[in-house]
From TrEMBL, chains A, B:
<keyword id="KW-0808">Transferase</keyword>
<keyword id="KW-0408">Iron</keyword>
<dbReference type="InterPro" id="IPR015424">
    <property type="entry name" value="PyrdxlP-dep_Trfase"/>
</dbReference>
<dbReference type="GO" id="GO:0047298">
    <property type="term" value="F:(S)-3-amino-2-methylpropionate transaminase activity"/>
</dbReference>
<dbReference type="GO" id="GO:0051536">
    <property type="term" value="F:iron-sulfur cluster binding"/>
</dbReference>
<keyword id="KW-0663">Pyridoxal phosphate</keyword>
<keyword id="KW-1015">Disulfide bond</keyword>
<protein>
    <recommendedName>
        <fullName>4-aminobutyrate aminotransferase, mitochondrial</fullName>
        <ecNumber>2.6.1.19</ecNumber>
        <ecNumber>2.6.1.22</ecNumber>
    </recommendedName>
</protein>
<dbReference type="Pfam" id="PF00202">
    <property type="entry name" value="Aminotran_3"/>
</dbReference>
<dbReference type="GO" id="GO:0030170">
    <property type="term" value="F:pyridoxal phosphate binding"/>
</dbReference>
<dbReference type="InterPro" id="IPR015422">
    <property type="entry name" value="PyrdxlP-dep_Trfase_small"/>
</dbReference>
<keyword id="KW-0531">Neurotransmitter degradation</keyword>
<keyword id="KW-0479">Metal-binding</keyword>
<comment type="subunit">
    <text>Homodimer; disulfide-linked.</text>
</comment>
<keyword id="KW-0809">Transit peptide</keyword>
<dbReference type="GO" id="GO:0034386">
    <property type="term" value="F:4-aminobutyrate:2-oxoglutarate transaminase activity"/>
</dbReference>
<dbReference type="InterPro" id="IPR005814">
    <property type="entry name" value="Aminotrans_3"/>
</dbReference>
Amino acid sequence: SEFDGPLMRTEVPGPKSRELTKQLGQIQNVIAVNFFCNYEASRGNYLVDVDGNRMLDVYTQIASIPIGENASICILWRRYNHPALVKVMTDSHNLSAFINRPALGVLPPDNLPEKLNAGLLSVAPRGMSRVQTMACGSCSNENAYKAMFIWYRNQQRGHTDPSPEELKSSVINQSPGCPDLSILSFMGGFHGRTLGCLATTHTKAIQKVDVPSFDWPIAPFPKLQYPLEEFKRENAQEEARCLEQVEDLIEKWGKKSRPVAGIVIEPIQAEGGDNHASFDFYRKLREIARKHGCAFHVDEVQTGGGATGRFWAHEHWGLDDPADIVSFSKKMLTGGYYHKEDFLPDKPFRIFNTWLGDQTKNLFLTEVLKVIKRERLLEEVKRSGKVMLHGLYELQARYPHLLSKARGLGTFCAIDVRDETTRNNLIFKARNKGVVLGGCGERSIRFRPALVFKEHHAHLFLNIFNEALAEM
Amino acid sequence: SEFDGPLMRTEVPGPKSRELTKQLGQIQNVIAVNFFCNYEASRGNYLVDVDGNRMLDVYTQIASIPIGENASICILWRRYNHPALVKVMTDSHNLSAFINRPALGVLPPDNLPEKLNAGLLSVAPRGMSRVQTMACGSCSNENAYKAMFIWYRNQQRGHTDPSPEELKSSVINQSPGCPDLSILSFMGGFHGRTLGCLATTHTKAIQKVDVPSFDWPIAPFPKLQYPLEEFKRENAQEEARCLEQVEDLIEKWGKKSRPVAGIVIEPIQAEGGDNHASFDFYRKLREIARKHGCAFHVDEVQTGGGATGRFWAHEHWGLDDPADIVSFSKKMLTGGYYHKEDFLPDKPFRIFNTWLGDQTKNLFLTEVLKVIKRERLLEEVKRSGKVMLHGLYELQARYPHLLSKARGLGTFCAIDVRDETTRNNLIFKARNKGVVLGGCGERSIRFRPALVFKEHHAHLFLNIFNEALAEM
Ligand code: FES
């Protein structure tokens, strides 16, 4: 069962973490390493490091753990008295999926349709019955872009058969086979680090500098004032400005013969600093995409999987047809994207790679989704999210010189700190008091607990965070 | 233990495969699906499908299974009397790695340095003590390209600190921050399907058409006559022609201000049709790269892991310093790349993503490498490779109207068939006789058995292949 609270034995990183960091430094760049973990000893919302420090985890492996450190085992073992996830692995039928990684596109395992139906498709966004599995957020988005480019060219041609000239020129990277199409993205957006994704990522320079890119349009993302309800008029003006720019850019890129095949956007810009926009903004953006014949791609790699209080963050928008493509990874364990029928290429090997995901992740996801439903974890998220956000409002009222712009949906919350150095110091201080946090944007802290983070964890977190703030 | 030979009950795909294909067709494009597999029933060199057909596997999930279908369990259980791979998974210490997927770059597990040393680094190419794990062949190559771009700009600048102007312009995809650097690749090369990789892939048009690309130089790959030993003079001329073109292209792209930061090449062009070049060609190419200040990247995604009779195919070249970067995936279970010290960025988050691979794949790889060593599987590969190639020579002498250009290193063999339709028919016919094969290039068949493919399997394969040919 879970622990009662943090328990700190050393500074973090402690001596063992520092020693291991030195060892790993012989092999890899270790500047980003926070500390080494003892995952075996970790449980639920608590991450235990190699020095025996037990910390409340409000970062969850960069927002990628759905139901807590070892939580799956823990919950299932205790609550339902059967270790379902351990069973997933030791069941001889599944065991083979761990040891033989099938090439899902050519030699799928017998249970693939069943597991996709019980897993990914059981939580498909409204109106989407197609899903393409991938292995991480980057290949999910790269392939989603390819699907949009193919779709766009099919529209332009009026049919799905590239001409001999297109086929021939494509092999040597030339037009018309490799057309000058573009994807419109937003300043502050993050969609991955492979070259295609990176051309739509605009967060930190160090992620992009020295790497060749594409001449694709970049629209401003609304810079809103928080709390959103208090600045409705100002925010609506700012959003109108950005939407106008979007239309201008689509026209401009069309004129310079690099038409916008698709628009990609996050429901909350996560890496970029937890930047929100109103649901109305997204509804209007969707209409602009439709009007100009651009595909609309919602990147839910970080927001998807329940942390906002709905399974998909874009469900908050209240649109029947919010997207052509919805990509995911992280908490979903497997990468991939849902898509409309039109985005399914009619020829093989256009969207393809050796593995096309990992069946073992589908198996785990199916179990995780069962837990989310049985435990009504989205309800928990709404409750603990309320405690979190309310608490953050209180803290920013108490420390106005340090904190501002508390914001969030569900437990997907963030707050701004005075400046980058202060933000980083605050994260270190909180960590030494037993809370693992991560930054985002220039001076924000993002809160990314697992779905098993309950109201009392939120209170615990707020108390410790308050202590850290008091010492600043 | 393993089966004695193929056993066919239905046509392939049989009724159950066809039914499952229909089901999966509701969710995904299934044109590339061959048949559905029962991985639990599969063993060693035999793949069993859902209709109970048992086939000799000479394709191994697109060359990605190192020691056979379920072989690891099977071998270890029987031979060493301890199910090491099952233990890998059920050991409570490892179990947590399956359930908590750590963000290896920020919160690594305690056993990461140990497992990297016992695994990937124990088979590092000579002179390389650094490895960056990734999750698939595409992110391995994408990040290898980024490492080469960063290295190249560092050389140009004379230091590793981008200017404020570079940093600022990079965020909006513009130069100087996003420089017009290029990667030189070869016609017929395959390096992946994400946008950066795809710009260096030049195999089939359908993999590239409609996707925007980069203006990067593409050199001709030598079109050699086989067997290589019999056409030494002609082949040397052809290789000299290609090398001259490489130098011309480097100069030409330098002049148009898109300098070549790196050259990427496979030791055998696999997807492109199993095109070989002489070891001398590769030695000279390496020197050209050095002379022009370009990084040299050997892509061993398909050739690495032992199938050529050496652990890395490029070890055949007999060079002390063959490469700056060696990328891998497939048989290595984890993706990644080895690199020289200079290709390690000195700042964090330049080469980074959420997971940076998958620790569970490192755990399996460590066990697989133990089996390869204990069982001396590379010796087996050399022996069965000889039987294979010799047998293919005999078959092409017997069916000169059908077959030509038998070629191979170890069991990494291929043969050309008269034309594409005949090739595809031959693959179907062989499959219905109980051998799973895959094509590559326009009219080649590639043979990609696992490392546990022994001489008697090679004889068995040759007999069945002969029967199929006789019926053509
Ligand atoms: S690009 Fe996604 S796993 Fe490699």
